[in-house]
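name: query_chain
kind: protein
chains: 1
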Amino acid sequence: MKFRFHPTALEEYQESALYYVSISPLVARRFVDEVEASIRKMRKHPKAFTVIEDDIRRCLVKRFPFRLYFTLKADHLLIVAVMHLSRMPEYWKDRIE
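structure:
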């Protein structure tokens, strides 16, 4: 299954990766690898993830304090948030159509 990022979710992902680059390029690479592994799992088995509200599901990113929130569209997954766990839990809800 294909996937897309909501534009703001893509910004969150990029900003988080850049933050980890400032700590260490190795840590940044691990962060990107873990997010990509999470996306592969979501693409392979999208309905295996917990529905938290309506049709929004969440996926925990291993080794990093992040969750990916996504919804299933007719032909793709839409990642609506790349959320650090310290953020307010529902800040991304206005991104849902």
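note: The chain has one domain: 2-92.
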